[in-house]
Amino acid sequence: MANDAPRRPLQSAVALTYKNDSPAPKVVAKGRGLVAEQIIHVANEHGVHIHESKELVSLLMDVDLDRQIPPALYRTIAELLAWLYHIESAQKSGQPPPPAPDTSSPLRDQEEQ
């Protein structure tokens, strides 16, 4: 018996970490389907903010685990880190969170040069 229910597209997720003494953020987890769901679940459990960007995730999926993000993504990831900082500041002060940065074209800076 065939299931005629529409199938949800296969979800992908990437987790990054950044330490102040590190030159760039690193990819610490990535996956599709159930692995992606688990990454998102663990992030939610630990209060980690999640930003959805299919374009950015697609580019980050090409980065090997425990490797730094490529220089072409530095600006986009820096904007996300700044956004997360502002979210945390807003939460502490009771202010509304800022809007998420536009990451729909993560390589826009490369294209403009």
TrEMBL record:
* Name of one Pfam family that matches: Bac_export_2
- The species is Pseudoduganella aquatica
GO CC aspect terms:
plasma membrane
Task: Quote the Gene3D superfamilies the UniProt record gives.
Answer: secretion proteins EscU
Q: What is this protein called?
A: Flagellar biosynthetic protein FlhB
Q: Which UniProt keywords apply?
A: Cell projection, Cilium, Flagellum
What protein family is recorded? Answer: Belongs to the type III secretion exporter family.
Q: Does the keyword Signal apply?
A: no
UniProt-listed GO biological process terms: protein secretion
Q: Which InterPro entries match?
A: T3SS_substrate_exporter, T3SS_substrate_exporter_C
